[in-house]
Amino acid sequence: MNSLTFKRHLKESFKSLKRNGWMTAAAISAVAVTLLLVGVLLAILLNINKVASDIENDVQVRVLINRGTTKKQQQQLRQELSSLSDVKSIRYSSKKQELKNVIGSYGKEFKLFSGDDNPLNDVYVVKTKQPKQTVKVAEKAEHMKYVYTAKYGGASAKKLFHVVDSVRTWGTAIGLLLLFVAVFLISNTIRITILSRKNEIAIMRLVGATNGFIRWPFILEGAWTGLFGAILPIVIIDFGYVWLYRVLMASLASTGYQLLTPATFLLQIDLLLILIGIIIGALGSAVSMRRFLKI
């Protein structure tokens, strides 16, 4: 197809949109409603997955060091922990710092245990490369020299990993189902607009127009319908998400977790909605045209 022919098809697609005003408006409205639903649910699912991952990554192994262990022995233990292939980082927390954490969480009455009365242990806080590796690392650390005990959350951590896996599995399933529904609704809406113009297609065939000459304006029209249908959902989702982000981040700040930042996240959602609208609109038109172009 040369540039002049493509320009002709492009102009014809715009004229068709104007000429079939009510059908075009109905198609764009249907696409807009569908894409709005897709965008909102995708935003919810992606943020649920983000928070779930943050919670999962917050699981660490706390290796309590035997009381009376010397600095040299503690360094030996650190080197042994570092040699584990699943270990990402190790942070040392003295028993003094541990007591400060307890006082900050449970009240000033625990200041009575300051100094020599401090019953807590020095701790190595170990972070693994993958959250699920905490169980294996804790079991290995438990049998190391100079270790009093190794904690990772036990059954609670395992339950957390199971919940996060379930969120990801169901989120993926719902997302795929949602895209399927979007494809079905948008393509059928485009098909209805083409069915209403079967006489126009028949006349073009009678005067000798080729299949490609007939097909391309409709494909471009479907793409325009998808593009225009994506504009309103993008505006609603962008403004709505920015407002919701500001409201929720105030309450999430104290937890250490956060939602996906609007800048990059919204750009990705916007581009995805545009692509879904254009691709499904164009494909819906191409598939719907097949029955009219059979010889």
Q: What spatial order of strands do you see in the largest sheet?
A: 2-3-1-4
Calculate the mean pLDDT score and round it.
Answer: 79
What does the overall shape look like? elongated
Q: First CA to last CA: what distance?
A: 22 Å
The counted number of beta strands is 4
* Poorly predicted tracts of residues: none
Helical content, roughly? Answer: over 70%
Structurally, the number of domains stands at 2
Largest sheet: 4 strands, antiparallel
Report the order of strands and helices. HHEHEHEHEHHHH
By DSSP (H or I, 4+ residues per run), the number of helices equals: 9
Work out the radius of gyration: 30 Å
Structural class by sheet pairing and helices:
alpha+beta
Strand content: 5-15%
How would you portray this structure in words?
This protein has 295 residues and is of the alpha+beta class. The chain folds into 2 domains: 3-56 and 160-293, no CATH class; 60-152, Alpha-Beta Plaits (2-Layer Sandwich), CATH 3.30.70. It contains 9 helices and 4 strands. It has helices spanning 3-19, 21-57, 71-82, 95-106, 134-142, 154-195, 198-206, 211-252, 262-293; strands spanning 61-65, 87-93, 123-128, 147-151. It has a 4-stranded antiparallel sheet with strand order 2-3-1-4. Helix 2 (21-57) crosses helix 9 (262-293). The radius of gyration is 30 Å and the shape is elongated. Part of the ABC transporter FtsEX involved in asymmetric cellular division facilitating the initiation of sporulation. It is found in: Cell membrane. Residues 59-148 form the FtsX extracellular domain.
